[in-house]
Amino acid sequence: MKHYHPLNLAVLMKALLIMSFVLGMYSIQPVTVVDAASGAPVAVNPALTLGQLPLKGATDLESEDSTDPSFIVVPQYDYVEGNNWTPETKVKLYTDGVKVAEATSDATGRVCFGYDGGSYNIAAGQVVKLTDGTHIEKHIVANIKVRSIDAVTEIVKGKAAPLSELIVGIPDSGFDFAIDLLVTTDAKGVWLADFSGVGNIEPGGWIGAIQSDSNGNATYMEWEVPDPKIVVDYEKDLIDGWDWWPGVSVTLNVGSYNASAKATWDDGDFEFDLAGIKDIKPGDEVIVSDGTTTKSLIISNLVITDFEETTDIIYGNSDPDRWLRMIAFEKDSSIGYFRSMQADSLGNWTADYSGLVNMAPGTHGWVSQDDDDGDVTRIDYVLPDPPLLTSLSKAFAVAGQNGFTLSVFGKNFINSSSIWWDGVEYDTTFVSAKQITTQLSAADLSAAGSFEVHVVTGLGGAVSSPMSFQVIDSIPAHNGKLTSNNVIFDWEDITGATGYKIQLSPKADFSILLVNAKVAASDYDRYTTALPRGKTYYWRIRPFYGDVRGPWSARLPFETQDPMEAPIIVNTVIDGYVVTLDWKGVDGAIKYKLQVARDVNFTNLILNAPVLSPDTSKVLTLPERAKTYYWRVKAIDADGFKSVWSDVGTFKVPLE
Predict the structure, then answer these.
(1) Is 294 within 8 Å of 288 (Cβ atoms)?
(2) How does pLDDT run across 509-537, given as a tens digit for each residue?
(3) Are 357 and 506 members of one domain?
(4) Same-domain pairing of 85 and 169
(5) Which site from 147, 182, 340, 550 is most exposed, i.e. has the minimal number of CB atoms within 10 Å?
(6) Do 17 and 139 sit in the same domain of this protein?
(7) How far apart are CA 380 and CA 327, in angstroms?
(8) Which positions ≥6 away from 221 have C-beta within 8 Å?
């Protein structure tokens, strides 16, 4: 697809050529005809235009009576022009025996068909006939083709009827040539016109060819000299080629990325749409080659930075000291205005459209910058409407929770739109005109408070109205720890919420629910089951706004109390058969369990009894002396949760 040619000279020249046909502005000028083989000039009547050149087939170039009616056919434009017909007389045009048009000749006998967009097609091999009732002229449309035009070697190659002659030249005006060569085709119809040392073939210029029959009627064709260009829109990751040789295969290189394409047959254009494939950016070198011509472009750092509605001025930046072109259209207008401007030594530029275009939302166009050989960096622009915010993916978070991706929904977002969090611009990802995102970190959510979220468009700095984001405190806090074996939930009111749903689970995915309740207030104290020590649990809340459910909060983990410490054995006092066992008390313990056994595995117990806190000792009388005994103790809290056993102590009651 073609994208905004900066200036399509080919189209302009074609239009001017047709206008010259219509208005009869071609001039009668001396013609220089040079034999392609010998290089010697051939005498031609200077009073004749090329439309009247009396070519007589392969060899006969004798002069013809210039007053005889004749015509020229231009099949690529479906155009026919006749001269020396009966003045001010209706002339009829036939193709292959079918009347397709009629027109009235002027006072000089000149008549034209096709400039008004006739509903017929003219192609090689057709028999074209003109008649004014007195004269009849016929011509078989010649099949003239160009295979290549090399502006470096100044050589043009093509095909026509085998062993025939034609004139190939650089057009001047109408059907006149500034420089032309008489060439002869070989047995296969191949011809070559070498303009080196004779004329100057310019890229973007034209080459024409004319071949006459024995009656002086002729076929004329013309071709634009390729003027290949690379046009890069890095914002769209789009690389276009313009005016390469039609149908040629080209290769693309951008860094390590390679691709290939084929130019169109009608205008030699091609396109590499790299969106989602290769991110091209200012400073990248783009190289395109067709094997004969190689073009390269260093992508300019071209950007529009701001605009002022009051002064109708657009500001931007680009490569320093270079000229730029810009076009601007007001919203819904088909009339655009060009501006040329030069960047200063720092690359800053301005385009002043005061009095021409109202710089307001919806104004659009493009700006481009050429390199030294005409390759182009360009960007499209649309001055945006102010962004409008409608909702946030989440309007609250819990203090201390992990960061997350915040989505902002609304409209009028563009690539340069940015999310601002409490007055600070954050890195923003453009999703669509209705959604952009940013990443909030844990640091952003570390403390409770109310924070403003708004969106700014980079172009023009239009600012949305703010939306409020709330960070709330909670009990238990994110990654908090309980001080008892029971949990009570409490959290700050969420703005606008009319109720909440709360869930508690021992699983991070909430696949098992201990609490799944809907409450009107921002607290919950109805879970009375004691929670085991040293475990992780998860809870979350969801606000309700009337009948509308809000999003769940983040998963909020908390730890239960640490496991009770094991008692530490302090002392063993033996007095005959009486033994006193002492240990260090444990915080939170309301009692202890004491075991004394005859074996280290505690299978042969002689004592398995509780000891109520605050006691941390036990006196017992042993049944036997000269035996080794083993003892241990564990702590128990008010909810019955126990510590691990202490280390094993040993003692032996001696004989008297």
Answers:
(1) yes
(2) 999 999 999 999 999 999 999 999 999 99
(3) no
(4) yes
(5) 340
(6) yes
(7) 10
(8) 74, 75, 76, 144, 145, 146, 208, 209, 210
